[in-house]
Amino acid sequence: MHVLSPAEPRPDPGADKTAETAEPPPPPPEESEKPSEDVWKEEYDELVEPEKPVKPKKKNHWGGIIVVIAIILIIVVWTIMSPKILPAQGETYIQSPVYASLGDFTGFRDIWAGNTSWGLSISGPASGTVNQPMQFMVLLTKISEKPGNWFLRGTSMDLRNVSIYLTDGTFLGEMTNQTDLGFGISATVPVTFTSPGSFELYVHAKFLVLEVMRIGFIPLEMVNIPMADFGLPIEVV
User: Fold this and answer.
1) Cβ(188)–Cβ(175) under 8 Å?
2) Counting beta carbons within 10 angstroms of the beta carbon of residue 136, is it exposed (0 to 12), middle (13 to 18) or buried (19 or more)?
3) Top-level class of domain 103-236
4) Phi/psi at 183 (nearest 5 deg)?
5) Are 119 and 101 in contact (CB under 8 A)?
6) Dihedral sign, CA of 160, 163, 169, 171?
7) d(Cα 167, Cα 75) in Å, to the nearest integer?
8) φ, ψ for residue 139 (rounded to 5)?
9) DSSP class per residue in 20-60
10) pTM to 2 decimals?
11) How many helices (H) and strands (E) does the chain have?
12) Where are the domains positioned within the chain?
């Protein structure tokens, strides 16, 4: 009789797994880095045909030349248009029995442009008739002048106003014309008296002084002569 031997225990599969050291799972595949824009740009630039070098354009100097020519022309025209310098006459006309028969006035100006003496001479009839116009002449001259420096050549005069008043301030008349006599500027002032009597008068004058330079000219100052008295009264009958 055959005796059966006890059955051998079956190996436990779990025991083998615990006995063996579990291997770590493989690392996940690394994600490839996202290509930067520069990489794409480089690849794009390789496909594009490189630009041909551009020759630098020559600078156009005509604009500067035109500006310089324009400035020169302006200076030339400015100088050509300068007024005539009024020459100094000394006291010839303020002591003249013809030009200063009724009175005279002198004034001195000392400014940065130099020293100048001006003269005003009054002439005309010493008597007249009621309601009959009387013509008086006022002459403005330069007595002396010393420019402030070499660049300043001298001054000219632009006569703006000549009026005659009674000494109480009553307006009688203003200039109707002016004349450049070469040695001075004269203005004619008509006056009409509406009543007889003996009248004391004075002249108010205003003129612009223009400074003439080696190049061009500039307005210098406005000279105002508020009251130049007649040397004697005017008799009206």
Assistant:
1) yes
2) buried
3) mainly beta
4) -100, -5
5) no
6) negative
7) 47
8) -110, 130
9) SPPPPPPPPPPPPPPPPHHHHHHHHHHHSPPPPPPPPPPPP
10) 0.72
11) 3, 12
12) 103-236
| Token pair listed for 186 | 């004269």
Q: How far apart are CA 231 and CA 237, in angstroms?
A: 20
Token pair belonging to 231: 């040397």
Q: Could you say which DSSP state residue 202 is in? A: E
Question: Position 96: which residue type?
Answer: S
pLDDT in tens, the chain (237 residues): 444 444 455 555 554 544 455 566 666 655 555 555 555 455 555 555 556 666 666 666 788 889 899 999 999 999 999 999 999 999 999 999 999 999 999 999 999 999 999 999 999 999 999 999 999 999 999 999 999 999 999 999 999 999 999 999 999 999 999 999 999 999 999 999 999 999 999 999 999 999 999 999 999 999 999 999 999 999 999
- The Cα–Cα gap between 198 and 203 comes to 17
Which residue shows structure tokens 């600078």? 59
